[in-house]
Amino acid sequence: MHASQPLPRVSDPARPPPAETLAARLLDAGGEALDDADLLQLVIAPFHPPTRARQLAHALLDRFATPARVLAAPPGRLIAVPGLGEASVAAIKAAETLGIGLARAALPDRILPVLDSYEKVIRYCRALSGHRPAEEFRLLFLDHRNRLIRDELHQRGTLAHTPAYPREICIRALETDAASLIAIHNHPSNDPTPSKADRDTTDRIAAALKTIGVALHDHIVVTPSATFSFRAHGLL
């Protein structure tokens, strides 16, 4: 576990507080007054009795380790948790989508690595992909004023690799009328250091985009606790 990450807080599954008590505590004192199991119990509480909801909250933490990884887990892995059910899975994915929306709302009007507000872009990238159990390659398409047009998932990969296809990226850049873009991918290993394959792929994407007059502003590698910017390290 990264030194800057707090230890997960979990409480006794055998003595679950009712959802009403948790809700009152949350509204009165904020999220810091609840532990990780409390928060997950609240998310799935409408679909299970209190004791069962608490057991499932702990089962989720046992399986995925952190609340962020619970939210980021694919629906197929969540539904495999015995007794969780589709409604609870949908509630968990809704919570993830709302969190990503909150991060997106904080994005600056103009996205450029030289801006102080670029840290908000990093946080958004981490919200999109940082906690995923397998590698994903995402693209942020920007207009001529460096405003976000859209973000898209380009490819999903494995635990240690995700493909990226420069030709397809160029096609989407033209279709979205993008002037530039930022590439993002995650490292489930928690080490953001790019591999040689990552560097080669970045060079090929940048070269392909250049032929159609589109700039690759950055390639950002994210983990739950760290980030590597190709631009900041002089690799773009």
Any chance you could write out the topology, listing elements then pairs?
Blueprint: H1 19-29, H2 36-44, H3 50-64, H4 67-72, H5 75-79, H6 86-105, H7 118-130, E1 136-142, E2 148-156, H8 166-175, E3 180-186, H9 196-210, E4 215-222, E5 227-229
Parallel strand pairs: 3-4
Antiparallel strand pairs: 1-2, 1-3, 4-5
Description:
The protein has 236 residues and is an alpha+beta fold. It has 9 helices and 5 strands, in the order αααααααββαβαββ. It has helices spanning 19-29, 36-44, 50-64, 67-72, 75-79, 86-105, 118-130, 166-175, 196-210; strands at residues 136-142, 148-156, 180-186, 215-222, 227-229. Strands 2-1-3-4-5 form a 5-stranded mixed beta sheet. Helix 9 links the parallel strand 3 (180-186) and strand 4 (215-222). Mean pLDDT is 86; it is low at 1-10.
Keywords summarizing the entry:
236 residues; alpha+beta; five-stranded mixed sheet; 9 helices; 44% helix; disordered N terminus
User: Count of DSSP E strands?
Assistant: 5
Strand adjacency order, main sheet: 2-1-3-4-5
N-end to C-end Cα span: 30 Å
Largest sheet: 5 strands, mixed
What is the radius of gyration computed over CA atoms, rounded to a whole number of angstroms?
20 Å
Question: How is this structure best summarized?
Answer:
With 236 residues, the chain is an alpha+beta fold. It is built from nine helices and five strands, in the order H-H-H-H-H-H-H-E-E-H-E-H-E-E.
